[in-house]
Amino acid sequence: MTSSRAPLSGIRVLEFAGLAPGPFCGRILSDWGASVVRVDKPNDVDMDRLSAGKRSIIVDSKKPEGKQVLVKLANVSDVLIDPFRPGVLERLGLGPSELHISNPGLIYARMSGYGQTGPYRSRAGHDINYVALSGMLSVLGHKESRPCPPINLLADFAGGGLMTAFGVAMALLHRNKTGEGQVVDCSLTEGAAYTSSWVYNAQDLSFVFGKPRGENLLDSGSHFYDTFETADGRHMAVGALEPQFYQQFIQKLGLEIENVRGCKGASVRRL
């Protein structure tokens, strides 16, 4: 897809530099054709590994001239990405209520651990805290072991950056119909819960769930859906849920079984 035909071609994004979810959101928008400018702080350590396709500018937002530059950039932008805790940009005079006066069509995308409102809004945290509060951490891990965090993928990236980018797309669609800008408020905790909603809603599927962590169909409780160490010290992933694939898997291993019951469990010894 050429940049001129990309769905977000012509959309201008102002991204304040931050950690994982903010850069990922900006990267998604850039990948779909938006022009993204990242705002860096003076002498700040660059930890962004998702900057492909973006331009950057160093601005000291605490100086009056720096604030003027940011206001001018916001006034010609379609989207602003705010990765800070609630109230940070308001204290700089760059909150949505100020910027919407001069640019009412601005999509002001905010992502924080617990959202802009509520009793936890000012609390600090990391992906592991957000995933724990979402309830999802309790189902991740092996049998008879403690819950295991999925690096920082679930809250920071899936529930944060990806969900915010989706919210921005919906807000742009709304603006195309009404001309109105709006605030997109993404809570990483709620985003993690939302992206995991199938897990909660599928608990009544007894052939998938219904047992403690690490004893179910898809959570390493099945020998035909798990990882195994190989003879060379590396690992292989096995996903042989359907009976026909399970039978091929067993045959390739040179094993024999009498009865194959596929995804509902097979009466064989653990491999």
Task: Determine the fraction of residues in helical runs and give it as a percent range.
Answer: 25-40%
CATH architecture of the largest domain: 3-Layer(aba) Sandwich
Number of helices, counting only DSSP H or I runs of 4 residues or more: 9
Mean pLDDT, all residues: 92
Overall structural class, as computed from helix and strand content, comes to: alpha/beta
Number of strands: 8
Radius of gyration: 23 Å
Helix-strand string: EHEEHEHHEHHEHHEEH
- Let me know the CATH homologous superfamily of the largest domain: Crotonobetainyl-coa:carnitine coa-transferase, domain 1
Q: What's the number of structural domains?
A: 2
Q: Can you tell me the overall shape?
A: elongated
- Strand proportion, as a percent range, falls in 15-25%
The CATH topology annotation of the largest domain reads as Rossmann fold
CATH class designation of the largest domain: Alpha Beta
Distance between the termini: 45 Å
Largest sheet: 6 strands, parallel
Uncertain stretches: 259-271
Strand order of the largest sheet: 3-2-1-4-5-6
Protein name: Alpha-methylacyl-CoA racemase
Pfam families: CoA_transf_3
Family: Belongs to the CoA-transferase III family.
GO molecular function: catalytic activity
